[in-house]
Amino acid sequence: MRLYPDGVLCPNCNSILHYHTLSYANLGDYFCVVCGFKRPELNYNVTSVDELTPNSIKFSIENHPIQINIGGQYNVYNALTAFAVAREFGVSEDKIIESFKSSQRLFGRQELIDYAGKKVNIILVKNPVGLNEVLDLLETEPENYTLTALLNAQHADGIDTSWIWDGNFESLNQDKIEKVIVGGERHTDMAYRLEIAGFDPGAMIVTDTPDSLLLEMKNAPTEKIYILSTYTAMLALRKKLAEEKIISGLMG
């Protein structure tokens, strides 16, 4: 479990927070041994996480079994937030649970696209915490896949790309990754980061345009392709996909 030091100081006395349990990043059951600050008592709890796959999660909130058709432990937190807000507004538990069944993946949030016989999963990444949660998600994939990493450094992405060095690419099971594609305006930085993580630089495919990226995706040796992309790189890819009539438009 990775703890991020920028969020572990007590807001009351600036001492280091301690944890009874740590979920991910700085989230969990925290407390301060100096001033007594601690996580408030919870009104709503995740009572179990039963199954994590790349495409679904089975878990329970207040002992109510729930399934959402999206991967990633962080989406359990998102579901708990939605559950809590809805309950505070008086929505019944049954209606909340039923609504989870109709939730959709949109605009880079594990967006699934069929392209040239490939199952392409586009996942927006923009900071170390989110990136590491996505890397953990990839570790739940049982089948071999192609890994694509697109890195831009425009203002909408953040012009400092050093955050990719806090991503634990070393945790990936490289035996499952049959092909690595890097792209975006800062593809050289991304390729070097993956090289340091142990990927063979000679086997990486470098793409510098959306056209070349689509070609490499079409020729990927696996049915599944995971694309980890910063915001503006994703926009460029989606624009090309829209031009090719693969998706209906830039926003969907």
Q: What are the main properties of this structure?
A:
252 residues; alpha/beta; Protein-Tyrosine Phosphatase, Chain A; 6 helices
Polypeptide structure, described:
The chain is α/β, with parallel strands linked by helices and 252 residues long. It has 3 domains: 41 residues, no CATH class; 55 residues, no CATH class; 133 residues, Protein-Tyrosine Phosphatase, Chain A, CATH 3.90.190.20. It is 26% helix and 25% strand. Helix 1 packs antiparallel against helix 2. The chain is globular.
- What is the total number of structural domains? 3
What is the number of helices? 6
Beta-strand portion reads 25-35%
**Low-pLDDT stretches:** none
Structure, briefly:
By secondary structure, the protein is of the alpha/beta class. It is built from 6 helices and 11 strands.
Strand-helix topology:
Elements: E1 18-24, E2 27-31, E3 46-52, E4 57-61, E5 64-68, H1 74-88, H2 93-100, E6 109-115, E7 118-124, H3 128-138, E8 145-150, E9 177-183, H4 187-196, E10 205-206, H5 210-218, E11 224-229, H6 231-243
Parallel strand pairs: 7-11, 8-9, 8-11, 9-10
Antiparallel strand pairs: 1-2, 3-4, 4-5, 6-7
Helix pairs in contact: 1-2
